[in-house]
Amino acid sequence: MTPVHSSEPFLWKDYAPMVFRKLREMFGVEAGGYMRSLCSDAALRQLNSPGKSGACFFLSHDDRFFVKTLKKGEQALLFSSLPAYHKHMASHPHSLLTKFFGLHRVTTPGGKKVHFVVMGNLFNTVVQLHKKFDLKGSRLGRTVGPGGTDNPHAILKDLDLDMSFRLADGWLDRLMYQLKADCGLLESCAIMDYSLLLGVHYRSRGELQVASTGPNGTKPLGLASTSTNASGGGGGLFGKD
Prior knowledge:
- The strands form two sheets. The protein has a six-stranded antiparallel beta sheet with strand order 1-5-6-4-3-2.
- The protein folds into two domains: 11-120, Phosphatidylinositol Phosphate Kinase II Beta; 131-240, no CATH class.
- The model is unreliable at 211-241 (pLDDT under 50).
- By secondary structure, it is α+β, with helices and mostly antiparallel strands.
- Helix content is 26%, strand content 21%.
- Residues 211-241 are annotated as: Disordered.
């Protein structure tokens, strides 16, 4: 059942509803709030830049969720990887992998069927993100080009990364452990085209005086942490310098 809305009627189908229900519970997303974010009168906002695959991307009105349309092959890959993904996320609560909240199909009054996946929006945070990066570990064509780095809304690439991050004792070990575990899952599912999303917040002088505590009780010079808040989106790194 979808919330009451004034738009045209449509048919909604859930794929693997029990598995995704468990995932949403694991990620702290309440069922009613999830449906209100996606199916209320406030329309989804379509993003300007479509993916290379030709997929369309949308953002929920409350900025909590990304919606991506899927082709049959993509849907089949996600569906076949779901058991391993669920097991991995259950055993790695600080995973940096994208959080998947649902796999659905909508049938319009005209009979058109659209398959899509709902993901967490990593960049929906309580702090302002001054820079955002999509890092693939490659140099070939990995820059937004002249003038692009001055655009506060641009998603920067590998060659645009002009800073380093200092981590307190214990943070690097935990980070590398989680990255290796997450990459192990992707490898087991034969997934190789992925990247690391990174959001950077420049702390004010006041924020610098109230430093966050590292895993061993130390005060880190920089901060890197996994986003475990469902409204904060999927896995990823937040770097503060």
